Amino acid sequence: MSRIMGGGNDYPAPYWEEARQALADADAKLGRVIELAGDSILRPRHDPFFSLSRSIVGQQISVKAAESVWQKMIGHMGEITPGAVAGENEESLRGCGLSRQKARYLLSLSEHFIDGSLQQEKWSEMDDEAVIERLVQVKGIGRWTAEMFLIFHLLRPDVLPVDDIGIQKAIGNHFNGGVRPSAGEMIAIAEPWRPWRSVASWYLWRSLDAVPVEY
């Protein structure tokens, strides 16, 4: 599914301007995508629970539907924190529009944060694949959710989420004659974007929707 993301602070990733210029220089087609986005940038939110829980809510549903569910959760709980979620039960979370499975995932995630088992302080010391390997051990977190965490929370610059339908669609639109490419084709098309594939991905998402969504 498409994922267009913003964030909660007033400054971009420290490498953003360098990456934007390098991508425009390396790939004329991507340069046009970047130009059309104007001054828009990814603004990170430094809250790991927010990032992961919001990604879980957004799995396999539209951006609009995910936003609706999230706002219902805020209306019900006031603030989405590990303690607030842990204080709920499966039925109360389902009342906010979550599926039973996602309600269970969020409850499990809150427990991992409360007991410290995700070892948050070590994420910055881990490479991308190590972060993914650790996160996918948590119920409800797959590779896509872990990649969103790398891009939007840890600000890793070179992540290409090939399983994301929005990225598939955008690369198809701009680089493959409207045909969605295979994972291998995506990797090949994105080769000139290294080491800034996260930034390229953000602009490709943005080409599909003018409204950023926070993760």
Arithmetic mean pLDDT: 90
Run of helices and strands? HHHHHHHHHHHH
The share of residues in helices is 40-55%
Structural class: mainly alpha
Distance between the termini: 14 Å
Give the assembly state of these chains.
single chain
Number of extended strands: 0
Q: What would the principal axes of the Cα set say about the shape?
A: globular
**Strand portion:** under 5%
Give me the Rg, rounded: 17 Å
Counted by DSSP, the helix tally is 12
Largest sheet: none
Fold and architecture overview:
Mean pLDDT is 90; it is low at 1-10. With 215 residues, the protein is mainly α. The two termini are 14 Å apart. It is built from 12 helices and no strands. It has helices at 16-26, 28-36, 48-58, 63-77, 82-86, 90-94, 100-115, 128-135, 143-152, 165-175, 183-189, 197-206.
Compose a concise summary of this entry:
The protein is mostly helical and 215 residues long.
SSE diagram, text form:
Layout: H1 16-26, H2 28-36, H3 48-58, H4 63-77, H5 82-86, H6 90-94, H7 100-115, H8 128-135, H9 143-152, H10 165-175, H11 183-189, H12 197-206
Question: What characteristics describe this protein?
Answer:
mainly alpha, 12 helices, disordered N terminus
